[in-house]
Amino acid sequence: MTRDHLERPAPGAPDFLFEDLDSVGSTNALCFERARAGHGGNLWIRAAEQTEGRGRRGRDWSSPVGNLFASLLLIDPKPAERIGELPLVAAVALADAVDKAAGTLHLVQLKWPNDLLVDGAKLSGILLEAEILADGRQAVVIGFGVNCISHPPLAMYQATDLRSLGFQVSAERMFEALASSFSVHLGTWREPGGFQQTRKNWLDRAAHLGKEISVKTAREEISGIFADLDAHGHLVLKQDDGGVRTLYAGDVFFPGD
After folding, report:
1. 146 lies in which domain range?
2. CATH code: domain of residue 81
3. Mean pLDDT in each 10-residue stretch from start to end of the chain (257 residues)?
4. Are residues 171 and 64 in the same domain?
5. Spatial contact of 125 and 61, defined as CB atoms under 8 Å apart
6. Distance separating alpha carbons of residues 228 and 148, to the nearest angstrom
7. CA 140 to chain centre
8. What is the largest CA-CA distance in the chain?
């Protein structure tokens, strides 16, 4: 399991701690273990390989060596009432990190809430989970998976990786860019009104903005025009009858998916 058990300042983000490991079940799960053991947070854990990686809604996430698998542990992130905005903060930070690592400009588009797409194919996955600890603190863990050198066949989506796109980006380089970018975007989010800058950055990369999409929620499937994000990052869907629906969770599908 261990490559380097010792915590040290994260490359690119010295205000955060960092553990670098060979193989783990799940970096998200390990972050929660650290939190339950009393860790103070601001901890990145990166693994060369995951054996039990998972995505949103409990889906498996393929985790072969060479791709990036990293999770960030935050304890009681403030402002607490806006924690639901963090998936979009993470998406914007990762999109910027991809550009920094690959030397590109707006290579990726964003699919609500936090998928990164290149020409419609999925490049990464982001999974945010939260837990109230026994001592009353809230642990928030944000997991990132980036296809640097390979990608799995996905039943629901097309997928791609940076090497297939012509970019030679190691997992180590990708992580350094991500740690640095996330530190900056988290700082912006923490400022009064800071999410509005995140929202603007997200919309600048939005896939299918102004076009028809479908959203599958736990109860129904809704179609309409992707009109906007509201002030907290929820998806605003304009329907054929002129009505507007604001959606707080769901899987987005584009025509042809």
Report:
1. 2-204
2. 3.30.930.10
3. 71 96 95 97 96 59 82 95 95 98 98 96 96 97 97 79 98 98 97 95 98 95 97 95 93 89
4. yes
5. yes
6. 30
7. 13
8. 59
